[in-house]
Structure formats: structure tokens, C-alpha cells
Amino acid sequence: MNWRLLDIRIGRANRGQFFLLLLWFLSINFLFIQIDIPVLKYIVLPPALYILLLVTIRRVQDMGIKIKNISAMIFATLAFLVTPYLSLLFMKYLKVFDITAYLLYSTIGVIAYAGAAITTFLMLFFLTLYEGTITENDYGKPPKGLDFNTMISNNTGK
Predict the structure, then answer these.
(1) Cα separation, 16 vs 9, whole angstroms
(2) How far apart are CA 4 and CA 10, in angstroms?
(3) Would you kindly state where each structural domain of the chain is located, as residue ranges?
């Protein structure tokens, strides 16, 4: 195995490679929703999340976009996902658990998760359909087909 494939700092991923690994991750996620084995989730999902993050960063690098330019969208998705938990902690801190607080928490949760879903969908839609650069860029040569060994090249300096 080529261990450089797991290095998050180098390489590029084309649309096909990104889409294939995205489908792989979604199928693993769906499988764990159907089979509720908590120990197996904690063993398999962290490496799967790392691979999804890895291929997402490589896809952004293939498009010639600096990761700091797309980090705002990633931050917005994470912020939307964390907001319901923060509002619940706030209510626990104030020791407010009446029907008004429950409705407020539910409303914040629905809005936050809807925002996270929309932001994530737009980001994945953009990453899947936007064509990468066809010439060599700072992260190496363009990957070819579905061959994952072409995600990295020997002459990447970053």
C-alpha cells in the first residue's frame, strides 16, 4: 500500500474519485444506521471521516482553490451542527426546562440542522460538479480516472 495516500497535505482528487469515496462514506453511514452496534461505529467511522476529509481537501486542491477560501463554508456547516447542542447547554445552565424552552430548543435545532443540511448539500454539489484544473498546480499533476494512486504525484512539494 502507498501510505502517502493518507497524507492530508499533498495530492489532488478528481470528480470521479471524490464522488466514489463520497458514495462509499454514505453507504458506510447508512449501514451503521441500519445496524446499531455502537462499538463498531467508534472503530470504523473515525477512519471513514478522515478519508472523507482527506478526499474533500484534495478535491479543493484539484480545483486550484486554496483551502482557506472554502473553509468558511466548512465552518458554517460545523457551526450549524453545534448550535443545537450549545442551546441545550445554555438551557441546562439556566435550569430552564419549561415548554417555552423546549419549543425554543426545538426551533433552534430544526433551523440549525436545516442550515447544516443545505450548506453541506451545496458544498458537495459544488465539489462534485466543478471541474478541476487540467494542468499541474501547486499540489501536483492532475489525477487520472479512478486510479487512487494518481491522487499523489512524486513531485509535490507541499
Answers:
(1) 20
(2) 8
(3) 8-64, 66-131
